[in-house]
Amino acid sequence: MIWRTPTTMASRGQLLVLPLLLSLLASHSSLIQLSWAKTVSVSDTEQLMPEPRAYSPDAQHLDFVYHDHEELTRFLRATSARYPNLTALYSIGKSIQGRDLWVMVVSSSPYEHLVGKPDVKYVGNIHGNEPVGREMLLHLIQYFVTSYNTDQYVKWLLDNTRIHILPTMNPDGYAVSKEGTCDGGQGRYNARGFDLNRNFPDYFKQNNKRGQPETDAVKDWISKIQFVLSGSLHGGALVASYPYDNTPNSRLLKGICRSSALCAMFQTYSAGPSLTPDDDVFKHLSLVYARNHAKMSRGVACKSATPAFENGITNGAAWYPLTGGMQDYNYVWYGCMEITLEISCCKFPPAYELKKYWEDNQLSLIKFLAEAHRGVQGFVFDPAGMPIERASIKIKGRDVGFQTTKYGEFWRILLPGYYKVEVFAEGYAPREVEFVIVEQHPTLLNVTLQPSKYLLPASSASSSSPVVSQQQQQQRQVNGKLQFPPTD
Question: Is 342 annotated in the active site?
Answer without folding.
Answer: yes
